[in-house]
Amino acid sequence: MRKVTKSPPPHDEMLQPSLHGNGAAASGHEASQSEAADGQRNILRRVVAASFIGNFVEWFDYAVYGYLAITISAVFFPESVGSAALLGTFAVFAVSFIVRPLGGFIWGHIGDKFGRRTSLSISIIIMSFATFAVGLLPSFDMVGYFAPVLLLVVRLVQGFSAAGEYAGASAFLVEYAPPRRRGLFAAVVPASTATGLLLGSLIAALLFGILSTGQMESWGWRLPFFLAAPMGLIGRYIRTKLEDTPAFRELAQDDDVVKAPVLSMFRDYWRPLVIAMCAVLLNAVGFYVVLSYMPTYLTTELGFGETESFIATTIALLTYVGFIFITGLASDLIGRKRMLIAAAVVFILFTVPAFMLLGVGNFAVVVIIEVLLGAMLTLNDGTLPSFLAEMFPTKIRYSGFAVSFNMSNALFGGTAPFMATLLIGVTHSRLAPGWYLMLAAVVCLAAVLCAKETSHEPLRET
Predict the structure, then answer these.
(1) How far lies 173's CA from each of 235, 261, 276, 310, in Å?
(2) What does the sequence similarity comment in the record state about its family (predicted)?
(3) What's the CATH code of the domain at 402?
């Protein structure tokens, strides 16, 4: 028989003064309440900081590869020319996503059986040292075809590590958050992801601005990867200073931890798993097309310089981080389902026209379009972490989130830059990425329409 546990009181109720007692007793009680509230706020601040920094490090490491794709293609695929070299680079980018479903199963199992903190502390170390290793790899000129093979191996390790990060950080925040602010707290995850991309974009723009092509291909491309190890150690240190989430500790105390969470997920929660996988599609394609592939698109397809392309994407990322918290808060107020439906509809209506306007050749127009596409994406991305975390009960939350998120990203997210480049080559249309993104929005809309609203449900019983 399932245990029914009462959700903790809303955070704002915890802060209200007691109405019982008077005099010294009342003052003492109010002081005790105030200290408890201060302690709770301090814990929440540390949780937010740990989740932000850890996720930021993971996704800075992972995104630098995309921003340096053109240089990496010259270093590791010099015998290929033009789009063929770029396709080789993006193929390695896509292949690294193959291990993400496997990573989702393993990190989900660890997170649901041994705790969220354990899983997150291990994954950040693996990602940081794998990224550091990229900067040490020999070029094609040094070791021939052995160079891209080594690059592929290290990218596979990165993909395995990244599989546990987004899901784990989201579950961690949602399970710590006040009940009425889960959407806002979970929005920290995509915000930190975008901040990691933002730093990667700034560093890439700086390197392309001050170094020659020869210097970039010789040694400049390695520099961002060397930042990974020290940042990863800082992120892990912060995470190990926190307790695991109240929801998981309660689960462990009640002896409700599932021995095989992945098996339980497939057996008892296959329907929300399928809905979640389809709902992730817009995020998977949109994130990598709008925020990762776009500098390459502007340079190779529209003829902008590398520095201009990175400046446009950097501005879009800055505004994305600001919008993401607004949409996370909005999902708390009007519901996850309405926000995700709105996101899918605007992408269906406006994506292709936006790509048409990108081709006008005016840099100011390009910046405006990128900012608008990023704002549209936040309607989905600011809502998705809390939506996915709330779809599954605590005992399999990490597994359900990690498997659904990573399956969609493996099939459609990691392949998005490759597919965009391939579709442009096949159709001879620069609008092809826009049509591809619109199709992802259609699938997402159909899935979300089948989902239940979860924003006001008690977390343990969702």
Answers:
(1) 16, 20, 19, 31
(2) Belongs to the major facilitator superfamily. Metabolite:H+ Symporter (MHS) family (TC 2.A.1.6) family.
(3) 1.20.1250.20
